Amino acid sequence: MSKSIRLTSCLVFVSFIFSASIxxxxxxxxxxxxxSDNGFGLPVQASVFLEFDSGTGELAVTxxxxxxxxxxxxxxxxxxxxxxxxxxxxxxxxxSFGMERTVFGDRSYVDGGSVATGWELFDNSVxxxxxxxxVQLNVLGTPTAPEHTILGFPDANDFYGNANASIxxxxxxxxxxxxxxxxxxxIDGLSDSxxxxxxxxxxxxxxxxxxxxxxxxxxxxxxxxxMGLISCRRRS
Length: 236
Prior knowledge:
By secondary structure, the chain is mainly β.
């Protein structure tokens, strides 16, 4: 489901948290976004956590949909654009996984097992908001779509009580991935000095709903819990 509107802007509160080293990771970043209007009058909330291990050369990316009791498919995560501070724009997706979740017409749900996401990694991708070049994780345009977008959390009664027909009992869109998906990447040339310089989250089952995080590395070194204001734009 998509909606054609002109480019719009809205205020987004963004928090940045940087952890210098945990477990075997050489560096890690956690980026959170929250927007009150995704261009359809609905809120979105999401995060991405990245861990780089120079020993294996692997970058683990965990993408979470943090919205609770959502209404529509345009609040589901379907892609992520990453720009690296050191300019890398090529790589491969080694593996990925998430838990399948099917939402029925009565707004109850059932979880399946852990499965490969069916998402793909695209090289030399241009960020739709900032125009920078990096890599893109995306389910749109793959044989898996429009299934396996990342769904948010159910309500306090453990139902998707607010869900409309784009989620509840929607054959083409089910099954979803339940709240989170993890991707293991091999990015050519990624190093200990690399960080994420820009990130853009993609929502919906059609390209055009984006919320971006500009220049996080210029802020993360200032400390934990730094808050910033940015603008989000939605286009189709």
